[in-house]
Amino acid sequence: MAKIASLDALEILDSRGNPTIQVLLSLDSGAIGVAKVPSGASTGKHEAVELRDGDTKRYAGKGVRKAIENVLQVIRPAVLGIDASEQQALDATLLTLDGTANKARLGANAILGVSIAAAKATASERNEPLYHYLAPRDSYVLPVPMFNVLNGGRHADNNVDFQEFMIAPVGASTFAEALQSASETFHALKEILKSKGYETSVGDEGGFAPRLRSNEEAMELLRTAIHKAGYRIGSGIAINLDPAASEFYEGGLYVFSKSDQSKRSSGEMIELWATWLERYPEIYSLEDGLAEDDWDGWARLTQRLGPKVQLVADDIFVTNPEIFARGVQRGVGNSILIKLNQIGTITETLHCIELARRNGYTAVISHRSGETDDTTIADFAVATDVQQIKTGSVCRGERISKYNRLLEIEHELGQKARYAGKNVYSKWRHSQSQTR
User: Fold this and answer.
1) Which of 18, 146, 210, 434 would be a feasible disulfide site paired with 166, CB 3.0-4.6 Å?
2) Phi, psi (5° rounding) for residue 8?
3) What is the pLDDT along the chain (436 residues), one digit of tens a residue?
4) Could you give the CA distance from residue 259 to residue 46 in angstroms, rounded to a whole number?
């Protein structure tokens, strides 16, 4: 047994300079697990509660001393002596202690810190990498990364309504090659932006946030950068979008307040995306193309465009198995974004991924805009075999730490590792079947 011997927590800063919680858990063997919990900026309204202090005299009310107190005063007495290797039992204990549907009492940040720290401590005790402890197998698949290289929406002060424009190196044969091609494209994009007189400072997730003229200009810049870097648009490097439509959904309409001031109904947004997919066939994935409350629109979007593109649902599902199950029944999306801190425990997250697998949905492991140097999601993506990861640009240390961890995993696995590549996308598989 890997009995929990001690539990501690402290307030640290995330990549945006805001407080977050770090949990340190040790076993009676002396093995230690440390978890640093991320924080989102563009958040779904149904996410589990991230507990903040609300004391405006400290960190503008964003302190996490209450969450830390909950770890020390509520969780610690209940889990000392528990076998940390019994992840489901531990997580069930945490959920019972909280007793709310959305983890409002203890805070999902406090609960998740303990859940992850226990898994990492047990992996350390067994002298195993976290991915192997979570899923012992003979071979593993390295995920296709989505690099957020151009920003708009809430992530940038420009005329672009859509939040994230990402590149996905689908044509590489290894993860190392994928990272190389993304880095080269990122730097090619920087040169292009400079040549046009645009700013090249980066945002929270490492992407550029220049004052572009329109949503379409962002697409054209990415196409140019991919070509300049020497890669084939689409088959070499695909483009993925996360418009974060909930952020510009007002009164039942989609308001393009940053670009042309137009307003669109749900049906008109679906037609817009249909037009974009025709104009830009290199788009392999569309995340949050409609808002979190637009359930009927999501069902129509999926029926219309689901066979043509990966439709990733984030804000509408928020990694919640119960909400996700309703979405499956209603035919919403064909992919789910997985963020551990949206739900709060490893067990619930794994449940969501298994639900996706059983129902033919793909899944994408994701970071948050407020990150740390914790690399748990890199191991988690490999362990769960979801074959896709989204963790920011090819810039900023808290993003690069995840990519470097994936490089380490690929290196230590050697011939036991393969790169997922373009076959993870139904769009590519569909195009190949049509050419046969």
Assistant:
1) 146
2) -140, 160
3) 899 999 999 999 999 999 999 999 999 999 999 999 999 766 667 899 999 999 999 999 999 999 999 999 999 999 999 999 999 999 999 999 999 999 999 999 999 999 999 999 999 999 999 999 999 999 999 999 999 999 887 666 667 889 999 999 999 999 999 999 999 999 999 999 999 999 999 988 999 999 888 889 999 999 999 999 999 999 999 999 999 999 999 999 999 987 777 899 999 999 999 999 999 999 999 999 999 999 999 999 999 999 999 999 999 999 999 999 999 999 999 999 999 999 999 999 999 999 999 999 999 999 998 999 999 999 999 999 999 999 999 999 999 999 999 999 999 999 999 999 999 997 665 555 554 4
4) 28
Alpha-helical runs (H) found in 306-375: 321-330, 340-343, 346-358
Radius of gyration in angstroms for the set of CA atoms belonging to the chain, rounded to a whole number: 21
Contacts of 62 (CB under 8 A, 6+ apart): 18, 19, 52, 53
CA distance linking residue 208 with residue 221, whole number of Å: 11
Nearest-angstrom CA–CA distance, 391 and 380: 12
Question: Both ends of the chain: CA-CA distance in Å?
Answer: 55
Question: Distance between CA atoms of 296 and 374, rounded to whole angstroms?
Answer: 38
Domains of the chain, start order: 4-127 (3.30.390.10), 140-435 (3.20.20.120)
Burial class (CB in 10 A: 0-12, 13-18, 19+), 278: exposed
The catalytic residues are 205, 339
CA dihedral 327, 330, 336, 341 (to 10 degrees): -10
- Beta-carbon contacts of 197 under 8 Å, excluding residues fewer than 6 positions away, are none
pTM over cut 0.85: yes
Chain Cα centroid distance, residue 369:
9
Q: How far apart are the C-alpha atoms of 99 and 355, rounded to whole Å? A: 24
Tokens of 340: 């551990």
Give, for 134, the enclosing helix (H) or strand (E): helix 130-134
In this structure, is the dihedral angle defined by the CA atoms of residues 165, 199, 59 and 61, taken in order, positive or negative?
Answer: negative
